[in-house]
């Protein structure tokens, strides 16, 4: 039989599945995704021995698998031993490498390499780069850590002028170092696998095959999309777990193995030379650069991108670049807070020796990327993960400080540019608690770490505008106009690609969009009009009578053997209804941090410096995160001597004559007893954001607001005082 040139053509396909669960994610989520994605994929590979690919498991996922399903790791090891699976390395806890200190970059990579070698008997030559966030200096640290290759998006390469036809292989890059081999994952394959019928991918690869047979087309993407993303489990695995999209695709790969070679990326890199040399600018996948832009610009970028895609203007799209990943540190003060805290703790850990005994593992866990950005697939709005990052930061800090300060009570304070914005913040640290104060923004308290429970009480997110809010508004308006339901599944019956499909978890979500005027810190001071309803306050539909909230305060600190005293002072004014001129008012806010106690005392003194009577309502707020979303039975709010309609931490209500109350979480083993020297009206409400994820738009609890209100009537020269004591203890 004569062989035609067409039959002699061949091509390689390199598949890399990235499997990850965030540090601090719920154990039931690990288990659910294991059952929906991780286990079925290994079972499918066992059924299809002719399919070879690369797998990446992050350290946080391997830790859970080792404890919950050690037999799973043994099954993967058998696939590795028979050369069917190549295990890929990376940063152990999946950090954004450019954002962490250089020595931690290398430590994170080497630690996962050692873990892979221990579990699977092989040393990885390549790595998965978290969120494909690339900066040109990375080759230095990757090669130092023993990495020979990694995978980026095709848009990284297209930004420098390369085209699809130039990407059927890998390129060499360097930074005054040994070379690093870089592959480009195909966006078209990421968007068609598994969203389009399997034969379409085979047909595409058939057209790209050559007689030389040295091309490789790469598809690297999340393993979770095979079963855990919305509607993908029955689609990918079928009713019997073995007849869905994945088995159909694997069967086609095996049936066409005479010309279509499934080749692990590390193997290909050792057998073929580079296509050439390349130098890649700072970048990530195009959606990440979209999300890093300010919200209005991000929306405009998205609309322009979709328009160009519909017009098939790939010649323009390849030069589309959004924002810089580090801009997330600008967009979200909470991300910057977390990042700068991590850098501060890094310095403390290494000053104490940089070993396990002084909190190194906790530091590395706190570098996990999942809450250092925000977009479609998670980010800073995940309150439980955000809390876990702080938990590990405080644990690392505790370990380092035991070496630096010993076991006896200690305290110190400093004014420092913690936020790296040329302004001075005040940081108070002790064996019991840390307080981070911002004199320039209302003399507010923006971090409060209770070190016994290793919990940041103020890890609350501000409700701010997101680019996808405009998408949601438009969608909800159209839905109400046409009385339609969510477009969850396309007419073909295939699951919708989360990049282009709109889902909502409840109707009229746009009615819950609320934007805050200032960061949701604590001890933010307000003067409010009489009769203002709680609903208006919670929805930020009110006017400030004074100019104190988020405005500069003067700060003075003293320290003695009893503790540290901070006096925050502002001379402002209060508007009077119907009056031409406001009244001058002095507000003194004194914070006393006693030595050796989990306790805080806040004293307010308000003095009417004007000639007329002052009538207003003074209010100060605490914004607390105690993981109380969804009516969590472990989290609570109680008022001594009164029965609330609900004791749930995330409940809403107005309570009068409050002198003593408790908030806490039994799982965190943290109770906070708040005592007021003068009875107040208590407002409380859940701070909910409307966020997007692969599962759809939903309301998510970010913390709860507790605002204390007192009516003020002060004659000229008269002062008013109140004391708030917050006493922490282990919950019962």
From TrEMBL:
Q: Which residues form the Alpha-amylase/4-alpha-glucanotransferase central domain?
A: 323-398
Annotated Glycoside hydrolase family 57 N-terminal domain residues: 15-281
CDD domains named among the record's database cross-references:
GH57N_TLGT_like
Show the segment(s) annotated as Disordered: 476-502
> What does the UniProt keyword field contain?
Carbohydrate metabolism
SUPFAM superfamilies for the chain = Families 57/38 glycoside transferase middle domain, Galactose mutarotase-like, Glycoside hydrolase/deacetylase
Looking up InterPro entries in the UniProt record yields: A-amylase/a-glucTrfase_C, A-amylase/a-glucTrfase_central, Gal_mutarotase_sf_dom, GH-type_carb-bd, GH57_Enzymes, Glyco_hydro/deAcase_b/a-brl, Glyco_hydro_57/38_cen_sf, Glyco_hydro_57_N
Can you give the residue ranges of the Alpha-amylase/4-alpha-glucanotransferase C-terminal domain? 424-724
**What family is this protein classified in?**
Belongs to the glycosyl hydrolase 57 family.
Q: What is this protein called?
A: Alpha-amylase
Q: Which organism is it from?
A: Dictyobacter formicarum
């Amino acid at each position: 039989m004569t062989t035609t040139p067409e039959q002699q053509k061949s091509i390689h396909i390199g598949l890399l599945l990235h499997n990850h669960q965030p540090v601090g994610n719920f154990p039931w989520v690990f288990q659910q995704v294991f059952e929906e994605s991780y286990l079925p994929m290994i079972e499918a590979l066992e059924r299809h021995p002719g399919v070879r690919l690369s797998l990446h498991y992050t350290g946080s996922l391997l830790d859970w698998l080792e404890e919950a399903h050690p037999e799973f790791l043994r099954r993967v090891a058998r696939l590795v031993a028979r050369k069917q699976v190549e295990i890929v390395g990376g940063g152990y806890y999946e950090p954004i490498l450019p954002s962490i200190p250089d020595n931690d970059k290398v430590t994170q990579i080497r630690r996962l390499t050692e873990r892979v070698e221990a579990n699977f008997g092989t040393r990885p030559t390549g790595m998965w780069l978290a969120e494909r966030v690339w900066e040109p200096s990375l080759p230095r640290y990757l090669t130092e850590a023993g990495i020979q290759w990694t995978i980026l998006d095709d848009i990284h390469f297209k930004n420098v002028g390369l085209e699809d036809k130039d990407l059927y292989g890998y390129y060499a890059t360097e930074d005054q170092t040994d070379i690093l081999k870089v592959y480009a994952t195909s966006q078209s394959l990421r968007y068609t696998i598994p969203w389009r019928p399997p034969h379409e991918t085979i047909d595409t690869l058939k057209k790209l095959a050559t007689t030389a047979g040295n091309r490789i087309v790469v598809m690297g993407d999340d393993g979770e999309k095979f079963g855990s993303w919305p509607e993908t489990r029955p689609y990918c695995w079928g009713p019997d777990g073995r007849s869905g999209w994945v088995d159909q695709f694997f069967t086609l790969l095996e049936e066409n193995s005479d010309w279509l070679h499934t080749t692990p990326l590390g193997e290909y890199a050792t057998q073929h030379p580079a296509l050439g040399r390349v130098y890649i600018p700072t970048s990530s996948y195009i959606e990440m650069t979209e999300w890093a832009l300010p919200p209005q610009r991000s929306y405009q970028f998205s609309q322009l991108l979709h328009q160009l895609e519909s017009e098939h203007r790939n010649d323009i799209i390849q030069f589309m670049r959004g924002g810089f990943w580090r801009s997330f540190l600008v967009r979200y003060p909470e991300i910057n807070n977390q990042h700068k805290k991590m850098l501060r703790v890094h310095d403390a850990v290494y000053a104490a020796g940089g070993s396990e005994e002084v909190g190194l593992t906790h530091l590395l866990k706190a570098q996990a990327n999942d809450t250092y950005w925000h977009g479609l697939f998670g980010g800073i709005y995940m309150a439980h993960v955000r809390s876990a990052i702080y938990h590990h930061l405080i644990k690392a800090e505790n370990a380092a400080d035991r070496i630096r300060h010993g076991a006896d009570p200690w305290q110190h304070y400093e004014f420092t540019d913690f936020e790296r914005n040329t302004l001075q913040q005040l940081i108070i640290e002790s064996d019991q608690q840390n307080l981070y104060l911002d004199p320039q923004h209302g003399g507010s308290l923006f971090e409060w770490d209770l070190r016994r429970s290793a919990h940041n009480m103020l890890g609350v997110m501000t409700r701010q505008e997101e680019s996808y809010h405009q998408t949601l508004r438009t969608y909800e308006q159209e839905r109400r106009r046409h009385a339609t339901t969510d477009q969850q599944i396309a007419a073909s019956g295939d699951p919708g690609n989360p990049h282009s499909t709109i889902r909502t978890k409840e109707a009229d979500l746009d009615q819950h969009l609320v934007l805050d005027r200032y960061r949701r810190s604590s001890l933010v001071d307000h003067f409010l009009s009489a009769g203002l309803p709680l609903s208006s306050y919670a929805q930020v539909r009110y006017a400030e009578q004074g100019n104190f909230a988020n405005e500069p305060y003067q700060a003075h600190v003293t320290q003695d053997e009893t503790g540290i005293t901070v006096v925050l002072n502002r001379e402002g004014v209060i508007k009077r209804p119907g009056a031409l001129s406001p009244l001058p008012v002095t507000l003194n806010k004194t914070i006393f941090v006693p030595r050796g106690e989990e306790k805080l005392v806040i004293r307010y003194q308000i003095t009417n410096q004007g000639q007329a009577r002052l009538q207003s309502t003074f209010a100060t707020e605490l914004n607390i995160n105690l993981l109380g979303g969804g009516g969590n039975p472990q989290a609570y709010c109680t008022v001594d001597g009164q029965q609330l309609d609900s004791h749930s931490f995330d409940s809403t209500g107005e309570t009068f004559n409050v002198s003593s109350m408790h908030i806490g979480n039994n799982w965190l083993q943290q109770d906070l007893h708040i005592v007021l020297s003068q009875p107040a009206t208590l407002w409380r409400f859940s701070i909910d954001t409307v966020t997007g994820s692969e599962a759809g738009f939903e309301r998510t609890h970010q913390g709860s607001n507790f605002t204390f209100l007192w009516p003020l009537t002060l004659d000229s020269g008269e002062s008013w005082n109140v004391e708030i004591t917050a006493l922490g203890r282990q919950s019962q």
